[in-house]
Specification:
The protein has about 240 residues and is of the alpha+beta class. It has helices spanning about 1-5, 15-20, 25-30, 40-45, 110-120, 170-180, 195-215, 220-225, 235, and strands at about 50-55, 55-60, 70, 70-80, 80-95, 100-105, 125, 130, 150, 155-160, 170, 185-190, 225-230. The chain starts with a helix and ends with a helix.
Amino acid sequence: MLSQRLEEWKPKTSLGLKVKNKEITDIDKILDEGQAILEEQITESLLDLESDLLLIGQSKGKFGGGQRRIFRQTQKKTNEGNKPKFSTLAIVGDHNGHVGIGYGKAKETVPAREKSLRKAKINVFKIRRGCGSWECECKTPHTVPFEVEGKCGSVRIRLKPAPRGKGLCVEKECAKVLALAGVSDVWSKSFGQTKNKINLIYALEDALRKLSTTKLRPKDYDALGVRDGAVEVSNESS
């Protein structure tokens, strides 16, 4: 299905043409140069992506006790009646240093889901991984290389390096994002109105982006086992 879709793809941008003609085969080159990705097929061609939808909404129930769901429903009251809208939050990743988050909103559920997946694919960015835990020091990219904090609205989330085998000690929806990004061990602490899952995920995205923008000394790359973006399987398993 995906291969057939890529074969029928007719690029509309110069970057898409280069990817289609195999002139660019590494997405890290695009991300390092800061080029805007305007076509979702670009990331589909260069990465083996896996997608998921986060539970940001809640179905109706007694005393607000409804089950969590992927659609968040809001409505606007007009003279003609209530006009509902549905919003979704999608994530994509390759489990190897690349992840994307997208928000979609529409009058129906299916267009909202498709819009969020499309935005997630064009918003892909690479993260920095390493082994910043003093309890481990294995120098493999299994956790974050140093403590980092992200913020969105009133929500703040702090990620701390954890030793190998500890797992993702973080909120469930955030754990889905970190797993798709290729982080397998982390400690976390959150502050603010964390019930707002959208702000919580965006705060996590802010923290992950800060991993790559923080300046490190050359000796820290070897001491912390820092890797930017994708890592070969042979290096990761060693």
